[in-house]
Design goal:
Elements: E1 5-11, H1 28-44, E2 49-54, H2 60-66, E3 75-80, E4 85-89, E5 105-108, H3 125-130, E6 140-143, H4 163-172, E7 179-181, H5 199-222, H6 229-234, E8 248-251, E9 272-279, E10 282-289, H7 304-322, H8 329-339, H9 342-345, E11 353-354, E12 378-380, E13 394-396, E14 398-401, H10 404-413, H11 415-430, E15 440-442, E16 459-467
Parallel strand pairs: 2-6, 4-5, 6-7
Antiparallel strand pairs: 1-16, 2-3, 3-4, 8-9, 9-10, 10-13, 11-12, 12-14, 14-15
Helix pairs in contact: 5-10, 7-8, 10-11
InterPro entries: Creatin/AminoP/Spt16_N, Creatinase/aminopeptidase-like, Creatinase_N
Protein name: Creatinase N-terminal domain-containing protein
Domain Creatinase N-terminal: 34-144
Length: 469
């Protein structure tokens, strides 16, 4: 573990933006490798029939193979141990089967369509599922999106898909055929298919992480007295890309009238400010005060830097300087607990989690976790302290972990991505004085860039190279 170093608010340049970035497509070879990983995990679990559910909010496991989500409908993918795939699609997604990234047989399922649309099918849902061969299965796996980790329930029997689908499956199979939650095939273990990425996938996801950080930099620049939340929110959307989270552009007290979205509230001196946006591959988030310096805060909050922001930043630095391939999740959890004690700073979630098409995929970092942190993992630095009487603080961004082989592949096949990563590493090292291992690849331009006083556009927290005594 690295030593803690002094942290101070210093006049420093903002990180450079990487503009006009081309989105890297997922390759055919990657799709083939993804399918092979899933089939291998099915074999490991003795599952010969896997149904993967999807809707707009929960489409990542489906999209992992198909390349698309079912937008405003529901859908399902059926994968047999043989490799044969069926796509179960509603009225308005049936046409997408021909564009899917995997060879498939499409089955029209009007039950997945919007209310009052035509239901001219001649078969029940159970009969339509029988057309996929579910009645021949020896063990059926159901993958929604959620990895259940209850210590009280049988997680294999918790299903996060609509009941009408699960009921139709059970009508079609023998009562002796096991039906289990199979989300673990995709996420939540060292061997789960989606927890690690190849060079093509990292290059693909870097686009979204880069875009989110550019948006945050633009929004930070726009923070000023008299600006509305909606004006700030306009900087948090870009290039027509769909957000992976509800955008946050909030000033003052949040959630008035249960509102989650940017409104007409005007930034006033001393307001708490929250800004968040995310795209496939990464999220960027910042929280601070609309002040130039601490003297503009209420007297009881003028120690915000020492009480909240600097301890939090020390945890971010500890996270960045200590994460490494092969460490257990519990090691990282303990490292954060040591520098930012939960009892004092009241963080409650995982100090870091994986990201992909979803903002929160799963996390190997939790108390007593034996899960290993692996090459190819794509992380969000997500530590959320809550100290009563003060604004929160946030500098959430994304990094990837890559061993020498993966770094070589990324540099060779995606030189523009690699150059952007190196530019970010240089900024962290030379400006912020944060020392990353070679394995840590910043995917966002704003990794560890934190301006707690948002009207001071030229000062941010910075490490010194002196060890604390």
């Amino acid at each position: 573990m690295s030593v803690q170093r002094h942290i101070k608010l210093s006049p420093i340049d903002a990180p450079p933006r990487c503009n006009a970035v081309t989105k890297v497509a997922i390759s055919d070879n990657t799709i083939t490798a993804r399918k092979a990983k899933i089939i291998a995990n099915m074999a490991r679990a003795n599952i010969d029939y896997l149904l993967v559910y999807a809707d707009k909010e929960h489409g990542g496991n489906f999209e992992y193979l198909t390349g698309f989500i079912p937008r405003f409908e529901e859908a399902a993918l059926v994968l047999h141990a043989s490799g044969k795939i069926f796509l179960l699609l509603g009225n308005e997604n049936l046409k997408l089967s021909q564009y899917a990234r995997v060879s498939n047989t499409a089955i029209h399922i009007p039950y997945f369509s919007l209310p009052n649309q035509p239901m001219n099918n001649s078969k029940t849902l159970a009969d339509l599922l029988a057309d996929t061969g579910v009645q021949l299965a020896k063990k059926v796996g159901i993958a929604g999106w959620k990895l259940f980790t209850s210590k009280l329930d049988d997680n294999s029997q918790l299903f996060d898909i609509p009941h009408f689908i699960l009921s139709a499956i059970k009508q079609t199979i023998s009562s002796s055929t096991p039906v289990v939650n199979a989300t673990h095939i995709f996420i939540g273990s060292d061997t789960a298919a989606r927890v690690t990425n190849n060079a093509n996938e990292l290059a693909h996801y870097e686009y979204g992480a880069n875009l989110a950080s550019n948006c945050i930099l633009n929004a930070l620049t726009a923070v000023d007295i008299g600006v509305t939340e909606k004006q700030l929110g306009s900087y948090l959307a870009d290039e027509g890309q769909p957000n992976t989270v509800v955008m946050i552009a909030a000033t003052g007290d949040r959630f008035e009238n249960a509102n989650l979205y940017p409104g007409d509230k005007i930034v006033q001196l001393g307001d708490k400010i929250s800004l968040t946006t995310g795209y496939k591959g990464g999220l960027s988030s910042r929280t601070g005060y609309a002040v130039h310096h601490s003297d503009e805060l209420p007297l009881a909050q003028r120690d915000y830097l020492d009480r909240v922001a600097i301890p939090y930043y020390a945890a971010v630095v500890t996270w960045l300087e200590n994460i490494r391939i092969g460490m257990s999740g519990k090691e990282m959890y303990a490292a954060i607990e040591a520098v930012l004690p939960k009892s004092q700073y009241h963080w409650s979630l995982n100090p870091g989690h994986l990201v992909a098409d979803e903002e929160w995929l799963c996390s190997p970092i939790y108390k007593d976790s034996e899960e290993k942190i692996s090459s190819g993992m794509l992380f969000q630095i997500d530590i959320i302290p809550a100290v009563k009487g003060y604004a929160g603080v946030s500098a959430e961004d994304g990094i990837a972990l890559a061993d020498q082989h993966l770094r070589d592949e990324l540099a060779a096949h995606y030189p523009a991505v690699w150059q952007r990563i190196q530019k970010r590493r240089d900024y962290l090292s030379n400006i912020l004085n944060i020392h990353l291992s070679e394995e840590v690849l910043p995917m966002s331009n704003t990794v560890a860039y934190l301006r707690p006083f948002l009207l001071d556009k030229y000062s941010a927290l910075q490490c010194t190279n002196e060890a604390q005594g």
